[in-house]
Fold this sequence. Notes:
Blueprint: H1 2-18, E1 21-27, E2 36-38, E3 41-44, H2 46-58, E4 61-67, H3 72-77, E5 83-87, E6 99-101, E7 106-114, E8 130-135, H4 144-149, E9 152-157, H5 160-168, E10 174-178, H6 179-186, E11 196-211, H7 218-231, H8 233-246
Parallel strand pairs: 1-4, 8-9, 8-10
Antiparallel strand pairs: 2-3, 5-11, 6-11, 7-10, 7-11
Helix pairs in contact: 2-7, 6-8
Amino acid sequence: MRRLLTLLLIWSSQSLAEQAVLRFSVAESWSMPLVRIEAEQPVEGLLYDLTQALAREVGARPVYHVMARLRLQEAMEQGDIDVRCYVSTRWFANPPKNFVWSIPLMHQRDLLVGRPGVSPQMSLGQLPAQTLGTVLGYTYPSLQPLLEQGRLQREDSRNQLLVLQKLQAGRYRYAVSNQLSLQWFNRSQPNGQRLQALTVLDEQELGCMVRNDPAIPTQGLLRALARMKQSGEIERIVQRYEGLGHQHAMPVAQP
């Protein structure tokens, strides 16, 4: 029996050594429900589940590189990561040429958010000059004209959760948040203290970028993502986290 166990351990070690490795990027600015990071590694969340499922689809072992959002493009260009997910074509002025886009996988809405009691019909055009809570390294195309005019100023935090916590604490009157993160934040807030979605600032389709390199199964990864989308697996992953905050979701005024 002892010899059998030894052989099984050797076989398992060899299998792991031979298994292909996929290097996924994780932005430090992500927070739940996208991802929760412990000891500089993701341990749960929507994007953790998605990348784990993708690695299983192609029989690879996922390895995660957690880094500042502003370093992501540099890491891609240097070949330090293989797959970057939760990204939009609109976020790149000069996208890395050695990466291939997946099909769109999920839809994101960026919202103007206020504290309880603020008029739910508030729009950007109605805002007086002030500071907005934003995430470091994020781009907000709808805000850019007002930022350039000096009517609005950014107060950046390192992740979305901190932005919403500062809004709740009264650090500023308004902030920008994606809808999933707002719903997740509000799920733990009592009635009368939930932050309000005031208007939709922007909407975009998000997908993954895969390094085009013979060392990794680029086309296999793209086909796997397409299968996951077509089968409804990605939608089920999103709904798993969307549903946890759904009871506190609220209608959003269109711009």
